[in-house]
Amino acid sequence: MAMNFVKAYQFSRKETTIHALDPRVKLFVSVGVAIIGIITLDPIEIAFLTVIQIIILALSKSMKLWLRSLKALTFFILLIAVSQYLTTQSLIQAIIFSARFILITSATSWFFYTTSPEDLGRALEQMGVPSDFSLAFTLSMRFIPVIANEFQDVYDAQRVRGLNLEKGNLLERTKAFLPILIPLFVEVIRRTYEISDALELRGYGFKEKRSHWKELKLTTNDYIFLAFFLLTIAIIVLHRLYYPLV
Q1: Inside any domain, residue 211
Q2: Closest CA to 237 of 40, 84, 28, 8
Q3: Rounded to an integer, what distance in angstroms lies between the CA atom of residue 29 and that of residue 23?
Q4: Longest dimension (CA), the chain
Q5: Cβ–Cβ under 8 Å, residues 105 and 69
């Protein structure tokens, strides 16, 4: 069973300009592009933003990871295209909605490719998010790929032992997943206790305000990246005012 779609949100440590940017700036740009992708139906805007995302992915040396995640999301892309075509009877509309989905997933992918869970948690805390919420979110993002790998290992082990998930009706195939899900849940619970003990041993929660060995500060590259994004928004606004297609 393929779990490659999880890699769309897995940090990859590399020495690039995009990786070195402040996570708060990357979060602002990523969320901004995703919001624009959600509200727009203009094919020129979608194509323009997609090209920008591809440039960012190329600068972060994450093109292979992105293409791999798109391959894993092929089913959802085709599902959106087919459902839109059956609803609107328009091939162009189906292509636009599929391209918009690719744009939104790309905007979130490069952010998680280039931002470590530690930097993300630190950024959320400096933005005023309570430390408990930022820690919970950081841990969830860190362990999603781990749990996915555990699922794949248990799945492969059970297949080697003769487990067949392809035969039988829906109920029988659902029951066949129990030998996979039970060991997976046991492993997740075990890891939860390990994390709880580690936090307790490190004195988490002893002081209300936590200190960090590294404080986030904006650099020249951060301001340039932010200015480039604001310029992109200005171009989109001018396009809507003078050359709207939708």
Answers
A1: no
A2: 40
A3: 10
A4: 64
A5: yes
Domain membership flag for residue 245 = no
Which has the closest alpha carbon to 95: 70, 78, 75? 78
Q: What domain range is 191 assigned to?
A: 16-203+217-239
Per-residue pLDDT at 8: 58
Dihedral angle of Cα 225, 228, 230, 231, to the nearest 10 degrees: 170
Residue 71 C-beta-side C-alpha neighbours within 13 Å: 10
Residue ranges of the chain with per-residue pLDDT less than 70: 1-9, 165-166, 168, 170, 204-213, 244-246
Q: What is the pTM of this model?
A: 0.75
Rounded to an integer, what distance in angstroms lies between the CA atom of residue 70 and that of residue 39? 22
Residue listed under structure tokens 């939860």: 192
The percent of residues in the chain predicted with pLDDT above 70, rounded, is: 87
**What distance in Å separates the CA atoms of residue 241 and residue 234, rounded to the nearest whole number?**
11
Helical H runs in the chain? 17-20, 23-39, 43-59, 63-72, 74-88, 91-114, 117-126, 131-160, 170-175, 178-201, 220-242
pLDDT tens figures, 32-61: 999 998 988 888 999 999 999 999 999 998
| Tally of structural domains, the chain | 1
pLDDT in tens, 128-160: 777 777 777 777 777 777 777 777 788 888 778
